[in-house]
Every structure is written in structure tokens, then in C-alpha cells.
Specification:
Elements (H helix, E strand, L loop, with lengths): L9 H10 L10 H7 L9 H9 L7 E5 L4 H12 L3 E6 L2 H13 L4 E5 L5 H15 L4 E4 L10
Parallel strand pairs: 1-2, 1-4, 2-3
Helix pairs in contact: 1-6
Length: 153
């Protein structure tokens, strides 16, 4: 696989690079994503949007989404799954990840959960290895989970 993937943490970049060769780990800025995906505006009809999303199929692809137990990560995982992708839901919250997997399976999505903290490089490497071993590839990576440095003010 050769492509541009947004890599939020060095640990994820190293984990991906260990399992797949020929991958670019350059950052993809948000403005570039707007050019790739259709962004509705006041002049976009439902028919135009339906046509755009009909072409956005990910059948047979594998997606890894961090921070996927809730919010934007969960919505991203659902959108990718409904577009035909297998989805690895990754989150630090085990209970939330299990609930997300149950909801996505209810939508008919092929999904698994991986519980880890994106700051734990060893666990990130292990989880990426498990996805690679189970599904043989990673086509989409959404880094929704974040790292925060907490310091007294």
C-alpha cells in the first residue's frame, strides 16, 4: 500500500511502518481532505451528495480508528463500515469500545475492538500487528485519539 496517511503519534507511525513497507506517513492537512471528500453546502442537492457517496465505496478495505468508542471517532468508524470497510475500533475505554462494537455489528459492519492507550507504544505496535495478522492490510487510519500533556498551571 502506498498512500498518504495522517499519523498523529510517532508510535503509530512506527507501528504501521513495521508491518507494511512502501507506506508514506506524511501528514494530510484538513484542507486536503475537503478536496477529496464531498463537503455539502447550501447549493449541494441530496442527489449530488448521494452520487458522490455512492462512488466512495471501501469494500474489502481495512480501517483503523483510534478514539472510536464515542463521538467523532465512533461516527468515523460507522461511516467507514457503512462504506464497506472492515473496522478496528481502538480506544482506551474498554467498556466504550465494546459498546461501539455492538452498535456497529448491529449495522452489519465487520468490526473488532482493540483497547490501548495511544501513548503506550508497545501496545500500539501489538494492536497494529493483530489487525495486520487478522486482515492482512490497513488501508485507512484515522487518528482521532489524542495525547495531552497535563502540567500544573
Amino acid at each position: 500500500m502506498v498512500g498518504i496517511m495522517p499519523i498523529a503519534t510517532p508510535a503509530l507511525a512506527r507501528a504501521i511502518a513495521r508491518h507494511f513497507s512502501g507506506i508514506s506517513t506524511k501528514l494530510l492537512p484538513a484542507f486536503a481532505v475537503r478536496r477529496i471528500l464531498p463537503v455539502p453546502d447550501a447549493f449541494t442537492s441530496r442527489i449530488e451528495m448521494a452520487d458522490a457517496f455512492a462512488r466512495f465505496r471501501l469494500d474489502g478495505r481495512v480501517a483503523v480508528v483510534t478514539g472510536a468508542a464515542s463521538g467523532i471517532g465512533f461516527a468515523s468508524a460507522r461511516a467507514l463500515g457503512l462504506a464497506g470497510s472492515r473496522v478496528a475500533v481502538c480506544d482506551i475505554n474498554a467498556e466504550g469500545a465494546d459498546k461501539a462494537v455492538a452498535a456497529l455489528k448491529g449495522d452489519g459492519i465487520d468490526v473488532v475492538a482493540h483497547v490501548f492507550d495511544v501513548a503506550d507504544e508497545a501496545r500500539v505496535v501489538a494492536a497494529i500487528g493483530e489487525v495486520a495478522k487478522a486482515w492482512g492490510r490497513i488501508d485507512v487510519l484515522i487518528n482521532n485519539a489524542g495525547l495531552a500533556a497535563r502540567q500544573p498551571s
